[in-house]
Amino acid sequence: MSETGVRADPLAAFRFHVAIDELALGGFSECTGLQLETEVQDYVEGGQNEYVHRFPTRTKQTNITFKRGIVDRTLWDWYSDTIQGRIRLRDGTVAIRDTAGESVLAEWHFRGAFPCKWIGPELDAGQSAVAVETFELCHQRLERRS
Prior knowledge:
7% of the residues lie in helices and 45% in strands.
């Protein structure tokens, strides 16, 4: 029997934390690409005209994209190493915290990540916006931990 007045509210998406191995990254304003997609193989069975059998095959990971105000060279240096053939795979987490920022409500762990795209800031002398860099990671696996 359920309790009266107890409900589970959806998680707020504005308070999240990103950690990648030992890198000191600062805060990010956006994180997208926490996505998996399983390919499906159709199998048409002879004599069976009511439906087509569908079987799961490989699961693909989408690149994870982060945006932040430029504060240091940490992400740039990691990407620069990748360009020069010094590939360093790293693991990391993206965690959603409660509105007070104290406890983790949901967490995703990615493994075997390396930078595959970097976009520099859009510069405009007519505005006073923050210089934002976009950083994209390819990874081998994404898991939901909590």
